[in-house]
Amino acid sequence: MDYTIYIILGGLVIVYFVVFFTNKRGQKRRKSRKFMDGKRRHNEQ
Questions:
Q1: Phi and psi at residue 2, in whole multiples of 5°?
Q2: What is the Cβ-side half-sphere exposure of residue 16, based on CA atoms within 13 angstroms?
Q3: Is there a contact between 36 and 30 (Cβ–Cβ < 8 Å)?
Q4: Could you tell me which residue, 18 or 44, shows the higher pLDDT?
Q5: What's the angle, vertex CA 32, arms to CA 29 and CA 34, rounded to 5?
Q6: 29 CB contacts (<8 Å, ≥6 apart)?
Q7: Transmembrane stretches, by residue range (predicted)?
Q8: The pLDDT value given to residue 34
Q9: How far apart are CA 14 and CA 20, in angstroms?
């Protein structure tokens, strides 16, 4: 029995949910937009 495809799909689903929930939490925090300004300033240098 080869479960490699199921292991890979399970890992992708877990990563998807982690990214989804961190984005939801980040949107609430983003109202001040301070960390976005810091990122832009860092990229310009």
A1: -110, 110
A2: 6
A3: yes
A4: 18
A5: 100
A6: 35
A7: 6-23
A8: 58
A9: 10
Say how many C-beta atoms besides its own lie within 10 A of residue 22's C-beta: 10
Angle (nearest 5°) at CA 44 between 33 and 16: 55
DSSP per-residue codes, 1-45: ---HHHHHHHHHHHHHHHHHHHHHHHHHHGGG-HHHHHHHHHHH-
* Backbone φ and ψ of 22, nearest 5°: -70, -35
Q: Phi-psi bin for 15: left (phi > 0), alpha (psi -120 to 50), beta?
A: alpha
The pTM assigned to this predicted structure is 0.48
